[in-house]
Amino acid sequence: MRPSNNMYSYFNNEFLPIEQTFVHISDLATQRGYGIFDFFKVVNGKPLFIKEYLDRFYYSADTMRLPVSLTRTELKEVITQLINRNGQADAGIKMILTGGYSPDGYEIAKPNLIVSQHPLTLPGPAVLEKGIKVITYEYVRDIPHVKTINYIMGIWLQQKVKEHQAADVLYHMNGQVSEFPRCNIFIVNGQNEVLTPASRVLHGITRKNILKLSGKPFVVREAEVGLEDVYAANEVFLTSTTKRILPIIQVDDKVIGSGKPGPVSLAILDKMLEMELE
Length: 278
Ligand SMILES: Cc1ncc(COP(=O)(O)O)c(C=O)c1O
Fold this sequence. Notes:
The structure is a single chain. The chain is an alpha+beta fold. It folds into two domains: about 10-120, D-amino Acid Aminotransferase, Chain A, domain 1, CATH 3.30.470.10; about 125-275, Alpha-Beta Barrel (D-amino Acid Aminotransferase, Chain A, domain 2), CATH 3.20.10. It is about 30% helix and about 30% strand. Strands 7, 8, 9, 10, 11, 12, 13, 14 and 15 form a nine-stranded mixed sheet that branches. The protein has a six-stranded antiparallel sheet with strand order 2-1-6-5-3-4. The longest helix has 15 residues, at about 70-85. The two termini are about 30 Å apart. Pyridoxal-5'-phosphate binds next to helix 7 and strand 13.
């Protein structure tokens, strides 16, 4: 995410040009990778599912013992002002809360709050028609229910992903899958049920919205999902704010279902698009 010209960001009580927004090297985020963040989309000037993203941001902050200097109402007002100031009606907004300027590089200090806006490109029709290949890796994120800034394993694995001509890497442990470094996973099983791992995952907002679709007409629910269930699934797809839904047609050397994006995945994508317009 490169700095965008002529854009403003919010940094501890002031709006600054994004190129002039810095944290000091003593920040725990720099020293130890300690901090949290969240990210949501703005469409036609309106933040989508803002309540859910703010809930998760304050939950992550609280769990990581990082007080947020703004109330929810104040933070919402900052977001509105940032959108108006930047004049970008369609974009992504990132809220970062760092561990602060720590005197000894280890103790939590007063967090720095940064809110920035960035251009956003969603997956185009080509990838949706073709689907993607993913590989797997045995790993569970630290404190997985919190959106921390720790993406060490995902970033380290990028080379391996490229070597396998894959698009992403699915984490699993003791035969159970959890999530991707930046996305949740869903499978469609032989009974046409749509399942997503119940534990050791970030509670993605896209995942949450898809769970709400249960019964319309597919059953969608949380479950323990084994790697073998993934290999044997009729359909597999990943979900996130920036990807929405991406069909997965190969996991390691196993082709999923017909090897093409499946009807349930595409129907859920249509429902997601409708939800975004509501
Ligand atoms: C670890 C992890 N899992 C899942 C997701 C997807 O969550 P959301 O749908 O809220 O973007 C993300 C998003 O960045 C993530 O970092």
